[in-house]
Fold this protein.
Amino acid sequence: MAIFLAQRGFIRSVALVAGLYFLQGASQSLATLSESLTIGNAKALSLGHAVTADPPGIDSIHFNPAGLARLKGRQSHLKVVGATFDIILEFGDYNDERKEYLAQQQATGLFSDDYFYDEAHNTTSETAGVSLMLPFFGLTDMPMAIAPLGGASYQPPGGNLTFATNVYAPMMVGFFREKDDPGVWMGERLSFMQLTYFSPSVAYEITDEFIIGVAMTFNYTGVGIDLPFRQPHAGLPFLGWLQGELCPDFGPGLSTGVEFDAICGDQIGLYDLLGYLSFEVEQPLTVGFNLGLLWQPTPWLTIGMMYQPSIPMEMEGEYQWRNGDSWNGFIADLVNDPLYQTGTVLVDLFGYRLPTGEATSSGGATIDMNTPEFFSTGISVQLTSQLKVNVDYKFAGWSEWQTIPVKFENPIDLLGIAEIVQPDAATRDSVTFPLGLSDTWNWGVGMEYQWDDSMVLRFGIEDRPTSVSGEAKSPLIPMGSGKLYGAGVGFTLEGGGVMDFAVGYFASSMSMPGGTSKLGNSTDPVLMIYNPYAGTDIDAELSVYLVEFSISQQF
């Protein structure tokens, strides 16, 4: 009986823990995906972000602060970025292991007819639009991500110092699905947002050939998720089997005639909604630094380097968990049974706690983590008077996110069950999630052709490798390795102003045969966090479309 009670409580605790796990797994995946994509600089996008040695205007603050020295006098910089992030999931058939398991369960005769109905089986899921975690507003749905951004710079006449500040979005990505979409079990809404709203910066020309730059960034970071939760795995089939054995309405019952009224309400379907998690956390202020160098030994060659150190970041917010109807009816009857109450007392003697049957759970939470460090180096070569080529090589330290700890304001009784099952990963008021990301190195190449005195054409390609592989793949953010393609045009305006326009496209695909993803379709009964599509073949496609426009002019 103790095993029965523990499995029952564990399912509900897993539902909460899994949602929080999603939050963190999502944040790192989204961060990897959107790194530098939504800065809003048309020149950088059109050159495949190969701009470390050819920093682009006011956004040199992000790409290489030393480039600010090229901005003369007083300048204003306005820009607009528009982006869409589309995810298509093709859910196929079950793998052989899952088929055999389902056939064995059906053969028992212990389940109602609709117990095995899976609305995601052999269907297609597609995101419906963009959802962004915005300051003051929280998760906000819109057809596409669009943001007006900009900054200003000043270089005193004849001086060797340039001062600047800028507003830009290093990471701005998210999506939402319709409520009846079969992909909602991997997130109905999800967003990761990082906005740099103040970035006092300075570039210093040490010599005509050598420049150094430094920027201090003040950032907002927010993460939000709305997640319907189901668990067609391990403990839930056990409950269905137990109901079939002990409840005459569902099955033949045991030969002893034993009946346990507390669990003989509606039979919980294998793919029923167990609960719904809403979670929003944010940090209004984190402080970062960007360091940059430029060296131009000859008029036709420039070498650049940029470094962003890892910085601490603690997000705070609120979560709310609501039980699904079928689970709520089941647990509400169970906790009032004298046998369950006796079991609760016995478990308490060992320092643990079983669920109390509350229909909702809410409170505050904090996530204490460090951002990855970034490094890039590049060269810019003026091959002819009209043609210039840029090449970058970059490092991203995603291995910083090996684990992510979540601390709750108050103890949560549901986590007491997780503490029993996974004492190295959970306590009553904390959860530590293993992510195991890998560092990445990638390259970018851009070409610029001066068409005439007032117009320049640009084209670039950036390799964007994934930081996840093998069983770490997930349909949550199916970010495989891919190439970013950018193209654009720049115009020199009368009076010396510059106007740039660019479009970009990134696509990747990922195949996850049934049972191969630890966060999606695994059939391992231990991996209850979190596999809503157990044993299902999943093919995923991700596509990102970008449009960016900017204008800079003296004032």
User: Anything to note?
Assistant: Residues 2 and 456 are 73 Å apart (CA to CA). The chain has eight helices and 23 strands. The helical segments are 2-34, 42-46, 60-63, 96-107, 235-246, 325-335, 338-349, 413-421.
